[in-house]
Amino acid sequence: xxxxxxxxxxxxxxxxALGASSAKAATEAGAGNKLRVVYHLSDAEKVNFVLxxxxxxxxxxGGPDHVTIALVIHGPALKAFQSAQATPDVSKxxxxxxxxxxxxxxxxxxxxxxxxxxxxxxxGFVSAEKGGVVRLAELQSQGYLYLRP
Length: 149
Known about the structure:
- The structure is a single chain.
- The chain is an alpha/beta fold.
- The protein has two domains: about 1-35; about 35-145, DsrEFH-like (Hypothetical Protein Ychn, Chain: A).
- Helices cover about 45% and strands about 15% of the residues.
- The protein is built from five helices and five strands.
- The protein has helices at about 5-30, 45-60, 90-100, 110-115, 130-140, and strands at about 35-40, 65-75, 105, 125-130, 145.
- Strands 4-3-2-1-5 form a five-stranded parallel beta sheet, with helices on both faces.
- About 25% of the residues are buried.
- Mean pLDDT is about 85; it is low at about 10-30.
């Protein structure tokens, strides 16, 4: 075999492998594998925007059964989710998201810094004990797509 034939064989094999990989991914996506997405929220002024994005995401894929969503909150944004300070709209959305299976994680470090416990937060929250950024990294390592609107 000359070099041209060897090169052509290698390129053909690579193309076939990529084609098979793409076909497998498309088949798996169509077979009911849900997209997994984690939203990152730390800016207090973006609370309503991010909650709207999450609702639009759920609606856009045809409902909560078609996507797995986690919301990780830390920093100043956490105040908006304290029961005593939450607006009626934020309270309603968080309740709806909790029913829809959205993981609502509050940074344990932020909770300590703000002297907040889970009972101070709206129902449905869990504590990211190791920290919000650690939880974000854990979810990404599990294949979650990272969004920070």
